[in-house]
Design a protein that fits this description.
binds magnesium ion; 3-stranded antiparallel β-sheet; 8-stranded mixed β-sheet; binds guanosine-5'-triphosphate; Rossmann fold
């Protein structure tokens, strides 16, 4: 990894120098306005200082891939070369070339730390539309690494396209960029590949209501034969709530208290297309509760588990909830109460953090209308605003 600083009167001139010296694979790590060559401290000239990097040796590919610092092809070539040179390379971390590499990684880490400690000020000299995008992503609480990564790519695109780009075009780039970030994960509603769908999550996030909306969608729009099982025997009212929905939708329901009941209910619904399973929303901090679920539900390959989170929750709490439920296999998220907030960055943060997609977004209390199957595009539109681009 070669990291170099360039100072030029303007960004396009800096880009020209970088391309000439480091080539087209070079990436920009940071840029800021600097003032140089003043006479007695006066009449200083405004310049742009750009730190650019090019991959010339292997590095922590995984970490850097996310930062888009190292191009994938080059890294692979280098890994193979190094593997050939030294089959036992894992143990020989102290060879001279490796210590050189470690120094470079350390330098890069320091550089990245400096950048992340100064989260906002680096963007002051960015072109207007990019500054607005920075503010939008901060407002939406998109995590800093993703935000910086996206902005550096947009800045590069901005100058490569000659600058002065209309905001609508830059917003389109932003949309494409964010969609690209999450497009490899699984999105979308019920696919009927699995017969049992189980919703879990903390109290009051909308598990039961969402299950009723999903049932209605599958019956009314897809003509499927649907049944309910509830393991939520913790509150009498909870059973009544699902029974009410079952009655309205004309759907059979079984209440199960243990694994044996659950197995019997499964047999009873053997000729159904889809069985939707509601669970008690006990306090997610209670580890015992998650263990109890395993006693009641047969977690096997026929079952898809959806973790329901409310977008009105704090992001740090959402992380704790995910960690708490991660002892059972979570397949996808459902995000509820989209109508009660205007900050949606948590969706993209959680999808990229845990590598899980989203089944649905819900946006109100009305059953069956207030639910939308999720897609990468829909999520990004939600975050950056549907009117954009
Ligand atoms: N605004 C809004 N309210 C919602 C949404 N989804 C559910 N609710 C409301 O949230 C409240 C709780 O919904 P439930 O479906 O009972 O939540 P739950 O997760 O099953 O709750 P417990 O079973 O007690 O854990 C109800 O008043 C719902 O109408 C939504 O998308 N937007
Ligand atoms: Mg419930």
């Amino acid at each position: 990894m070669k990291v170099k600083k360039y100072v030029a009167p303007s960004m396009p001139e800096a880009m020209k120098m970088i391309r000439a010296e480091l080539g087209s694979e070079a990436v920009i790590l940071n840029s800021k306005v600097v003032y140089i060559n003043g006479f007695l401290g006066l009449f200083k000239k405004k310049n742009i200082e750009v730190i650019a990097a090019i991959d010339s040796k292997p590095a922590e590919q995984k970490m850097l891939k996310k930062e888009k610092v190292i191009s994938e092809t080059t890294s692979h070539k280098i890994i193979n070369q190094r593997h050939d040179q030294n089959q036992n390379s894992e143990k020989k971390i102290n060879t001279s070339s490796d210590s050189g590499l470690l120094d470079e990684i350390k330098q890069l880490k320091v550089l990245m730390q400096e950048l992340s400690s100064d989260v906002n000020s680096n963007f002051e000299h960015y072109p207007g539309p990019l500054k607005e995008i920075n503010e939008l992503l901060i407002k939406q609480e998109i995590n800093d690494i993703l935000r910086r990564n996206v902005l550096s790519q947009l800045l590069e695109k901005w100058y490569l396209n000659g600058g002065n780009i209309p905001k609508s075009t830059v917003m389109k780039w932003l949309q494409d960029n964010l969609v690209q970030e999450i497009s490899s994960y699984q999105f979308g509603g019920i696919s009927f590949q699995k017969k049992y769908i189980n919703v879990v999550g903390p109290t009051g996030v909308g598990k039961t209501t969402t299950l009723a909306k999903i049932a209605a969608e599958c019956i009314l729009k897809k003509g499927k034969k649907v049944a309910f099982i509830t393991t939520d025997t913790y509150r009498i009212a909870a059973i009544d709530q699902l029974k009410t929905y079952a009655k309205i939708l004309g759907v059979p329901i079984e209440v199960t208290y243990n694994l044996e009941d659950f197995k019997q209910a499964k047999e009873k619904f053997s000729d159904f297309d889809l069985v939707l399973i509601d669970t008690a929303g006990r306090n997610f901090r209670n580890k015992r509760y998650v263990e109890d679920l395993k006693e009641i539900i047969d977690f096997n390959s026929e079952l898809e588990t959806l973790l329901v989170l409310s977008l009105t929750s704090k992001y740090t709490d959402m992380i704790s909830i995910y960690e708490q439920f991660s002892t059972i296999n979570i397949d996808k998220f459902i995000f509820t109460k989209k109508d009660e907030t205007s900050n949606y960055g948590a969706i993209i943060n959680l999808v990229t953090k845990y590598g899980k997609g989203v089944a649905y977004l819900t946006n109100g209390q009305n059953v069956p209308d207030d639910i939308q199957p999720a897609s990468a595009n829909k999520i990004v539109e939600t975050i950056i605003g549907e009117e954009q681009p």
